[in-house]
């Protein structure tokens, strides 16, 4: 579940290429809008110079050139406004497209990861796209192991798990059972103690607990029992 829940950092990393492609298209559109502004600016500058050079006494020509200059300024202002609207629209489309892509990738990943038919080798390949590295720190006194996980994209998370038992610990009988045996020795012999423990569902070694069942993968195997020495 951790991998499925933390898909977002990896998805962001994978969506970078999608974002780059969309940005490239928007940058090209913005360059076209900038060229339109440059043309409008040039025409407005020419109209201004023509107006400034006209004889003030020639009111008819002056009024005509002033009108043309004002029109060019209006076109320039419209071109600048059009660029701003286009940039805002492109950013909205970009954010929406990337968001939709992230949602799709996250959903697809979770579906594939949780599918029981997905082979473990495929899950390992998925992990290579998600996790940058994992650092394990054993804490023997606490019997735990810290796992520092660094995901692609920069996010990190730390998990604490119970450390796996050593072979000697796995075959060591639980101290509580040993204490129970010591008490039973006051009134029972070894064979009776073995029968009592087996009847109560206790098992020796790493399986010292009640109601130990035969593993499903070994239907013909017999459950481990304390040995009756009689």
Describe it for me?
Helices cover 61% and strands 10% of the residues. It has eight helices and three strands. The chain has helices at 2-5, 7-14, 16-53, 59-114, 120-130, 167-170, 175-184, 190-199, and strands spanning 131-139, 144-151, 156-162. It has a three-stranded antiparallel beta sheet with strand order 1-2-3. Helix 3 runs antiparallel to helix 4. Mean pLDDT is 76; it is low at 206-224.
Question: Strand share of the residues?
Answer: 5-15%
Tell how many strands the DSSP assignment holds: 3
Quaternary structure of the protein: single chain
- With helices defined by DSSP (H or I, 4 residues minimum), what is the helix count? 8
Helix/strand-derived class? mainly alpha
Helix-strand topology string: HHHHHEEEHHH
Shape: rod-shaped
How do the strands of the widest beta sheet line up side by side? Answer: 1-2-3
Q: Taking all residues together, what is the mean pLDDT?
A: 76
Q: Helix fraction?
A: 55-70%
| Uncertain spans | 206-224
Rg from alpha-carbon coordinates: 39 Å
Could you give the distance between the termini?
50 Å
| Biggest pleated-sheet summary | 3 strands, antiparallel
How do the strands and helices of this protein lay out in sequence?
Blueprint: H1 2-5, H2 7-14, H3 16-53, H4 59-114, H5 120-130, E1 131-139, E2 144-151, E3 156-162, H6 167-170, H7 175-184, H8 190-199
Antiparallel strand pairs: 1-2, 2-3
Helix pairs in contact: 2-4, 3-4
Summarize this entry quickly.
The chain has helices at residues 2-5, 7-14, 16-53, 59-114, 120-130, 167-170, 175-184, 190-199, and strands spanning 131-139, 144-151, 156-162.
């Amino acid at each position: 579940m951790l991998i499925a829940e933390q898909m977002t950092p990896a998805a962001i990393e994978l969506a970078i290429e999608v974002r780059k492609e969309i940005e490239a298209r928007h940058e090209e559109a913005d360059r076209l809008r900038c060229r339109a502004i440059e043309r409008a600016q040039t025409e407005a500058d020419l109209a201004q110079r023509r107006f400034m050079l006209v004889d003030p006494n020639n009111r008819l020509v002056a009024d005509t050139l002033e009108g043309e200059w004002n029109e060019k300024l209006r076109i320039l202002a419209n071109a600048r406004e059009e660029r701003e609207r286009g940039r805002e629209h492109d950013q909205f489309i970009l954010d929406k497209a990337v968001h939709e892509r992230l949602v799709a990738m996250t959903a697809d990943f979770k579906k594939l990861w949780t599918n029981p038919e997905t082979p473990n080798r495929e899950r390992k390949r998925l992990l290579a796209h998600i996790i940058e590295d994992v650092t394990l720190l054993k804490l023997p006194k606490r019997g735990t192991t810290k796992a520092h996980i660094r995901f692609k994209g920069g996010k990190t998370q730390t998990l604490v798990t119970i450390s796996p038992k050593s072979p000697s610990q796995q075959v060591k009988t639980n101290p509580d059972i040993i204490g129970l045996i010591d008490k039973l020795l006051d009134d029972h012999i070894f064979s009776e103690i073995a029968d009592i423990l087996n009847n109560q569902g206790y098992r020796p070694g790493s399986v010292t607990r009640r109601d130990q069942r035969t593993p499903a993968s070994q239907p013909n195997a017999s459950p481990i029992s304390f040995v009756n020495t009689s």
